[in-house]
Amino acid sequence: MPLYLDDIMRLLCHVSDEQKMKAAVKHSARGAMVAGAGAFVGGLLGGPPGIAVGGAVGGLMGAWMTSGQFKPIPQILMELPPTQQQKLCENIYTIVSNLDWTDATHLIMLVMGNASLQQKVAAALINFVTQELKAEIQYGD
What we know:
By secondary structure, the chain is mainly alpha-helical. About 70% of the residues lie in helices and about 5% in strands. It has six helices and three strands, in the order H-E-H-E-H-H-H-H-E. It has a three-stranded antiparallel beta sheet. The longest helix has about 40 residues, at about 25-65. The radius of gyration is 20 Å and the shape is elongated. The model has no long low-confidence stretch (mean pLDDT about 85).
């Protein structure tokens, strides 16, 4: 398995790059806290209407704080500690273990040529990013 770590990481970077995946790892929780704090302060100062106004203002501030904080998934994957990379690769290896590949390029070609396999790999990656890293995923530019 350790021999395949680099191949699988390159596959994951390719799949996430193809789908233009980005994620906000650290700042999405902070934005949510600002939105909640805005609603709380608004409620203290203005009662029920203040909750609505404070929530809206806090939500806008939270959105502003997290905008531009999304990083491409390939960058996040390469910055993972080795233990998390290993765990991710083990999850993906269970999906691609029946394939016979010679290098990363060959593995990428096999997976990208099979829509079902590509979907399984992407789903496992999304699950890892959202569950293990507690990140919010965004697609596109």
